[in-house]
């Protein structure tokens, strides 16, 4: 009978606990959550920087955030988001949905809130590998170490800002901030704002800021230029190559005066609690070695849920967890560590040959359907319906080319393969 530790009570951790709690081969499930509530990145707080315990604020949620994918593909396979007249929901609705999910599956009693994981370390046991996990109860200040058979790492990857190396950034005369610390647009009133990065949050926030800023420059290197019609005070620019005083110099040689450099440059995978003996290395945002972007090749009794991005996240978490639990209960066997490593190295080469950079090691997007099929075929886990990927691709295209109004669209899933949008 297995004792399992789940690190994090966001969507991935809740999903892991939901499946583990009904698994006959599991005797104990402890969910360790640093915050005082569940929900992970979906929790909104006005606070930025550090919390009352001196730990970095985890959430990157801004006040006005609405989902950038329709709710019809944001639920879990066995627990869809409740019906409503909108497809794109505010963050508070998604947080309420996660609370509903946790309550429905009786996960909440197993969560140890305000518990900060300090160290995860493998050790040899009489019948194979075990894990020592040290954590601190932030309410009492007391630390303890417990032994587990399996570890599910579910700490998310939207919490540690990636700061690009732009010459002159450190000496920039104006304000510099990362979207991790963005909450409301009013701080940019009357300012000339340079937004660096046109991922989902960059595009979204840039548009929101045009309502108060004097001017917004959106600097990016998207190969497919967005066809969205932006407000008059918003201008697209190529990559910024240098900052000099208050001047931004762009790749095309043009220059603009700016008051604020606003970095919407994404996040770094960060597992500060993993001892080096865990064998997980993060370089250029590539987490390795992982089999199927999930299983720790060096120590297969650890999995890292939710590493891939540009996915139907909650459904993917569910499939990853079901895949891994089936390896725990003997429904299928994982390959040997040598075979898993060979598979990972081969996948990296294949991705590189198709033009993915090392930083995009875990980017799925158009590849997500194949990834889901792989997990399902290998493990015998029930597959995810193809309609999820179809809606994801449809919505993502509209996000790029119809940013100001795409959230008015409504989706309806007709069956496992077809949908309508109206």
UniProtKB/TrEMBL annotation:
Record keywords, A-Z: FAD, Flavoprotein, Monooxygenase, NADP, Oxidoreductase, Signal
EC annotation from Swiss-Prot or TrEMBL: 1.-.-.-
GO molecular function: flavin adenine dinucleotide binding; N,N-dimethylaniline monooxygenase activity; NADP binding
Signal peptide: 1-17
Cofactor(s) the protein requires to work: FAD
Family note: Belongs to the FMO family.
Name used for this protein in its record: Flavin-containing monooxygenase
Source organism of the structure: Papilio xuthus (Asian swallowtail butterfly)
């Amino acid at each position: 009978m297995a004792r399992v530790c789940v690190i994090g009570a966001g969507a991935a951790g809740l999903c892991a606990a939901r499946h583990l709690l009904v698994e006959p081969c599991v005797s104990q499930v402890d969910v360790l959550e640093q915050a005082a509530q569940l929900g992970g990145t979906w929790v909104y707080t006005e606070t930025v920087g550090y919390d009352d315990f001196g730990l970095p604020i985890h959430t990157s949620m801004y006040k006005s955030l609405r989902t950038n994918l329709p709710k019809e593909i944001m639920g879990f396979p066995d627990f869809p988001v409740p019906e409503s007249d909108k497809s794109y929901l505010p963050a508070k609705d998604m947080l309420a949905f996660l609370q509903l999910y946790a309550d429905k599956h009786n996960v909440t009693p197993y969560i140890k809130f305000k518990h900060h994981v300090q160290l995860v370390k493998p050790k040899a046991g009489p019948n194979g590998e075990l894990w020592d996990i040290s954590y601190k109860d932030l309410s009492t200040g007391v630390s303890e170490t417990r032994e587990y058979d399996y570890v599910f790492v579910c700490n998310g990857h939207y919490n540690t800002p990636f700061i690009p190396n732009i010459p002159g950034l450190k000496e920039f005369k104006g304000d510099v901030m990362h979207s991790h610390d963005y909450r409301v647009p009013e701080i940019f009133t009357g300012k000339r704002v340079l937004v660096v990065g046109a991922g989902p949050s960059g595009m979204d926030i840039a548009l929101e800021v045009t309502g108060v800023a004097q001017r917004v420059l959106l600097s990016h290197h998207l190969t497919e230029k967005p066809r969205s019609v932006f407000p008059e005070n918003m201008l697209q620019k190529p990559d910024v190559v240098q900052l000099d005083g208050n001047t931004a110099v762009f790749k095309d040689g043009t220059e603009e005066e700016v008051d604020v450099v606003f970095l919407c440059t994404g996040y770094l995978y960060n597992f500060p609690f993993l001892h080096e003996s865990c064998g997980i290395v993060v370089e250029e945002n590539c987490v390795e070695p992982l089999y199927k972007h999930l299983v720790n090749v060096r120590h297969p009794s650890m999995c890292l849920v939710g590493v891939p991005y540009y996915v139907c996240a909650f459904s993917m978490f569910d499939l990853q967890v079901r895949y891994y639990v089936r390896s725990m209960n003997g429904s299928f066997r994982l390959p040997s560590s040598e075979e898993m490593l060979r598979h990972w190295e081969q996948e990296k080469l294949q991705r590189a040959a198709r033009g993915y950079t090392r930083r995009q090691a875990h980017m799925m997007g158009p590849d997500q359907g194949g990834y889901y099929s792989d997990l399902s075929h290998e493990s015998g886990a029930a597959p995810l319906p193809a309609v999820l990927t179809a809606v994801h691709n449809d919505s993502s295209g509209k996000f790029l080319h119809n940013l100001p109004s795409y959230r008015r669209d409504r989706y309806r899933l007709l069956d496992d393969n077809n949908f309508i949008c109206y």
